[in-house]
Amino acid sequence: MTAFDPRALRDAFGCFMTGVTVVTTTGPAGEPVGFTANSFSSVSLDPPLLLVSIGRSSRNFAHFVNAGGFAVNVLAEGQKEVSSTFARPVEDRFADVEWHAGPAGSPVIAGASAWFDCTLWQTVEAGDHVILLGEIRGFSASHEPGLGYYRGAYITPAATAAQLPAGPDVVISAIVEAAGQVLLLDDDAGRLSLPEARVGRDGVRPALEKLLASVAPGAASGEIYAVYEGEAEGRQHIAFRCAATSPEASRGAFIPLETACLKAVGDPATRSMLDRLATETRLGNYGVYFGSHAEGQVTRK
């Protein structure tokens, strides 16, 4: 077997941008236990399976391998302190964390972007780790942007947006979703389009919030869904997914997020992006697109 420098290998793994989770279960006396992990992945829709891995050196190793189940809590961008707490050797990691028991009995952390409560489906030996395969017994997802991790540092959608370019050649668009529908505007020729605006000196987030206030008051400023160069030279587009509590708008109308209903979208790049969103919504597996109006790649979350 080839010998690698463990630190160099860890740094190379860190080049893959991930989300941050806290994995939880209960100990033999019913006490909550948990640890921070970014080794989380969806596995199957039928049956609904996911996986995480745990190191054999973890003080919680025996609890998770012998427990009947576990929960994966996908942390929101405002929960960096929660992540840090569960990554440190703290005696009671749950002392300052609000939580409740999920449908399968494992601790679910309040305010998480999403959570999945599972029964243990299978364990797989994997070197100095063991892979825990869980069958999902209950889950919940909010529109809170998730906390990210890249090259040893936390990243957040808000911070990412703050670093994006601003100016008259940057256009933002709002993909406002409610009840399986998306908000679209129409012109005199019957062509549909997303609400959009140029970015001014205040930056990306203020421009997005102002745009949402003009078309769908109450819609939440969401996460980045696509960043791409437009057909016009020098024009950059940034699209955000934004959640509305109901399909009501002061401009435009909500239409079903289905490929057949999106044929009237005039801009090919926008139509392609919404077709992708329709597919990802059915699968429950979203990504972020980077590229041009014609070609690029999707990075899965």
Automatic annotation (TrEMBL):
Record-linked Pfam families: Flavin_Reduct (PF01613)
Gene3D superfamilies: Electron Transport, Fmn-binding Protein, Chain A, Nucleoside Triphosphate Pyrophosphohydrolase
SUPFAM superfamilies per the UniProt record, alphabetical: FMN-binding split barrel
Keywords: Oxidoreductase
Domain of life: Bacteria
Domain Flavin reductase like: 13-156
Keyword Oxidoreductase: yes
Protein name (database record): Flavin reductase (DIM6/NTAB) family NADH-FMN oxidoreductase RutF
Organism of origin: Pseudochelatococcus lubricantis
